[in-house]
Amino acid sequence: MRKRMDEIKSSLSEILELPKDIVLDLPKITMIGNLQVYIENHKGIIEYSKQRIRINTNIGILRITGKDMYIRNIVTEEVIVVGEIAELEFQE
Q1: What is the CATH number of the domain that holds 74?
Q2: Which of 22, 69, 70, 91 is the most exposed, fewest CB within 10 Å of its CB?
Q3: In 3D, which of 88, 25, 19, 87 has the Cα closest to residue 59?
């Protein structure tokens, strides 16, 4: 049922030319080089260390690995991670 609703929402977003991240409640991830990651529409921090940060989203857990990482800013739906970022990966 959820898959069908997502398909309908996706089609609707294309027809109305609306951003899919808003219509489908998806995370929006912006990366600046390997120095900064900006995540919108997150659902909370699961793990936080200098080498690994895991962030909950509607489509799974976003795992960020690297060196000397820290969270520069965190608000209700936005988080900024700064450091030497090596890898981004979605886990189920």
Answers
A1: 2.60.40.2000
A2: 91
A3: 25
